[in-house]
Amino acid sequence: MRNVILTIDLERDWDTTNTDAIKKVLPRFLDLLDKNRSKATFFVVSDLATKFPKQIKQIVKRGHEIGSHSHTHRHLNNIRFDELEQEVKKSKQVLDRLGCNVQGFRAPAGIRVAGLSDVLKRYKYTYNSSTIASWFPGRYNELANDKPVVRHNGLVELPIPNFTMFRIPAGLSYARLFHPFFTPSLSKQPYMVYMHLHEFLDRLPSNKIRPDVWLASYRNRGERAWKIFENMTKKHELNFITCNDYIKLNPNSLSQKRTN
Ligand SMILES: [Zn+2]
């Protein structure tokens, strides 16, 4: 078995106002994690958490970690610096009040902005998992940053790695999009994978979904998504762990790599 971080971004369905994923998918997903003795980090949008406090407490009770995925899921490059600060500060307050002990942050849509790591440090976060280490026209350009590092200010960076020779992000949505064209010979072994619970829903929302997101979400939804996720776990003998567990298990390798 190989330890791999499992991360789930818990937000409204595809940036709509729908909340089917947290209502319908979360219970089955938690059961599956229990069955496989897996642990995961859920990066939660905290204004959604205020509407579903029971579900958030259930995630904590079953031994998983909660991180912040901002308060409102607004993209950080579209807001003022004081609003960014508020997204970081308020989401931690709200989630901690629900008993979460938040350590980590993931920026909405993997969009980072200058100064984010200092703001995270100021509000007592210990790690950031916002970089998507891939190249995708107009979206990601972070191929080099694919390994965990510690910043000069002490903040641990856990980038979302790529998992094939084509540098595709290690996410369930991409595994579904390109299924079944991934073969073991094309795959790298990522230290972390990420997904959204709305990927397990049968239906896409009929409105308000961006065309590129619709395209990436169209293939292998619902039961097929469950199957792809289960196969990925079994075939590669993955033992899923949380971000915090990973940091605790790898203190030496993280402390050796300091960066600005
Ligand atoms: Zn998100």
Could you explain how this protein is built, in words?
- It contains ten helices and twelve strands.
- By secondary structure, it is an alpha/beta fold.
- Helix 1 links the parallel strand 1 and strand 2.
- The longest helix is centred in the middle third of the chain and has 17 residues, at 81-97.
- The chain starts with a strand and ends with a strand.
- The relative contact order is 0.18.
- Bound molecules: zinc ion.
- Residues 9, 11, 69, 73, 108-109 line the site of zinc ion.
- The site of zinc ion has 6 residues, from loops.
Number of domains: 1
> CATH H level: which superfamily?
Glycoside hydrolase/deacetylase
Please mark out the parts with pLDDT under 50 across 5 or more consecutive residues, or reply none.
none
Head-to-tail CA distance between termini: 34 Å
Helical content (DSSP H or I, runs of 4+): 25-40%
Bound molecules: zinc ion
Mind summarizing the main beta sheet?
Answer: 5 strands, parallel
CATH architecture: Alpha-Beta Barrel
Structural class: alpha/beta
Strand content: 15-25%
Number of strands: 12
User: Which of globular, elongated, flat, extended, rod-shaped describes the shape?
Assistant: globular
